[in-house]
Amino acid sequence: MTHLITRRAALALTGSALAAGQAGAQSIPTQPAPPLNLPVERGATLRMLRPVRFVQPDEEVFRANCARFTQQTGVEVRVDFVGWEDITQQTAVTANTGAGPDLIIGFNEAPHIYSDKLVELSDVAGYIGTKYGGWKAMAQRYGKRAGGDAWIGLPFGSSGGPLVWRKSSVNAAGFERPPEDHAGFLRLCQALKAAGKPAGFALGNAVGDGNGFAQWLVWSFGGYLVDENNEVAINSRETIASLEYLKELYATFIPGTIAWGDISNNRAYSAGECHLTANGVSLYFSMKNDAALRPIADDTEHSLMPLGLQQTSPMAGLTLNAMVFRHSRFPNAAKALLAFLLETEQYDPWLQANLGYWSQPLNAYSNSAVWTSDPKVSVFKNVMDTTFYAGYKGPISQASAAANADYVMVQMCASVASGQATPQQAVAEAERRARRFFRSRR
Length: 442
Hints:
Strand order of the largest sheet: 1-3-2-4-9-5
Low-confidence stretches: 1-18
Largest sheet: 6 strands, mixed
Number of helices: 19
Structural class: alpha+beta
Radius of gyration: 22 Å
Order of helices and strands: EHHEHEHEHHHEEHHHHHEHHEEHHHHH
Shape: globular
């Protein structure tokens, strides 16, 4: 969907965002930072592309924030909101044709794929990082060019997918909360299955849920797709151990998870068919705001995915990552807009409007009121502190993005769970498929 914000429209849209921003500014600590020197080009207008909202206030406050930029600078801003499944394709078209939006807020590694088509953003990242307590670990990983300190993207937030579970069911199964170790987690899932209240995790080609579960499974045993030198390393004893474990774990799942997409577990959990899964905060709020489903929301808890053999929960969030294209006639205006949107008066109201769906990339915003607004969303607060990311442990690259998009790890797991392949056969096939990308795209 599209929205054109003119200077006249800006005046009508700023009230609520301004009020919330003034309240939020009082709780967000800042540090002195040398001001940016970004003289806006004469006659500048901007067009931005970004993913459609997952919670309605996301879009409303984002539009109001862009309207405030128009009001203060005179720069008209057009924002096109497109479906999640379309953003990657439209980013590729923009980069390859050298025409289209001035800015795109895409996902994860997008700036690393098209780095030669982008304006460097180190000045904006330096200013914002200094002022707001520094960038979190995953923000730096996705924002900086691999192996250097130049910023090619500006992460705006990340959506986590921790465990979502029915407290009454877990407690009735003999557990206070889901265990952190593999053996304990398996025992919980077996007990839930026996009680007719099974767990379920996506093993289909689901952008968020499928990749998220497969990555957790392999990483939690110490496996990874590629090593620090971008050498394919999926065929390891650690990965095989994770797939052996999956055979037992999958036997406890609700039927049909092999074909689950990103919406499937939401439906199963809301229907009371599944009592343990992994999802973003949107599932909880959709039930909390529905009178018929409120009892399930009241019985719902969140916790990080089990540690397994790791010291921290091996989860990678889906990250919004902004980039400015070289074909833009107004690069200073584009960078000024991004800086403006990350300032307290704009960013904190937007963060709060998302109800915890997006977690902040900057340390100062850990103080946002959103994280104390509901105890059940606090687990999402530190999503971007993780050291895990799509493509872990190698540098983010076009190859890692392609392997992720081709569901190499997801389909490896699904083939074992479905009985179509042994763990040894599955890792060998995953290795073969991964080598195609990492040999040809390094």
